[in-house]
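To make this tangible, this section ends with a sequence with its structure tokens:
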Amino acid sequence: MLQLIAGAVNDRTARGIAAAVSRLVHTGELPAGSRLPTVRSVAQALGISPTTVSEAWRSLASAGAIQTRGRSGTFVLTPARPRQKLRYARLTANPATLPHDFSTGVPDHDLLPDLAPALRRIGDTRLTTSYLEEPVLPGLEAVLRERWPFAPQQLTVVDGALDALDRLVAAVVRFGAHVVVENPTFPPILDLLETVGAVPVPVALDAAGLAPAALAAALECAPTAVFLQPRAHNPTGVSMTPARAAALAAVLAEHPAVVVIEDDHVGDIATAPAVSLGTHLPDQVVHVRSFSKSHGPDLRLAAVGGPAGLIAAVADRRLLGPGWSSRVLQAVLLDLLTDAATVKAVGAARLEYGRRRDLLLSALATHGVEASAGDGINMWIPVRDQQFALLTLAAHGIGVAPGAPFEVHPLGSDHIRVTVGLVRDGFDDLAGVLADAAGTRHRTSGPRTHSLHRGTR
């Protein structure tokens, strides 16, 4: 067993040793109940300090992979996740007490299309005659395929983007696996990876998306998957360009076993065109398209398309749970996607969100604050001190999301995320308060007065 562990370790840091042993546990080469070699013997075999091995063992114990039983030794366990507060749950502290809550990441309700006409048009149509029918309405699948950024081998519909990501993680990622993610990234991605005991590998973003050189370096650790947001990245608003997609695809083509999972969470209210690595790597890419931001969170619908084997695995597993996503809601979505008035309303919402981003960005610039909000409904703002910013804004009745839950590793400076899509007016006043909170200037008077309309959640 000592030779097995030593041979599996390429990275002799504590983190590298823990990841190597995790993979051995997952593959069954270190089955549950196995007694591990002593810390000292592993250290001698690797030519490193026992302290480093002890730190790796502590990490594995925290992840529920191993357990030390005193003098009896250390044994492999069935993986179990320790209960911790989710990153996702840390985004909003106490919104009910704040009159202006811009922490939520939800769309403005008043910019969503009216569902009532669609419900009237579909009437009492009987859409289910068997529990084993195809999970997607044929008409909806046809429309989705027309709108897809590449030709997927198979499509299915699930209950929102997070449901899709959860099921894809379960299908693709195993305990101890390395997974490439953006840094910063959407916090639930990190929560999901932690749930299965995976190791996130952060890759930096620039104005065009993931940096190709950084991705190439990350792929050296043999990851199972790459998670990315192709447009209106949450929280930065960055959208991947077609040229960048081609460059990333060229890097990933050398790693055909890596699955790329794209989360297009903003969909039809994004101003950037739909871009996908699936155009270049259709056998490696799974694309998720959500309709929550554009057509309504309560539709709870997202489409998932990509390689047939993987999509079929997701659809088949759902048969043992929810079975399928509501065909009534699918019929509503199909109506909304093909109704001219709704298409026009969604287009108007897209323009309005762009107007709000531009107005707040411009107002912040006058105070020396350089924020990021290239697309979508969120804005990423650097601040000198996250906690000071949160408290300062709360004193003004303004709620925003802390930046730390979005970060795999610290970015070198603190940030906050503001759901600018909920800011309807008062942009100049809000920019002044945000500048004070960001610490870009000294305030010599009392609290700044401001007049804001609360965004509907």
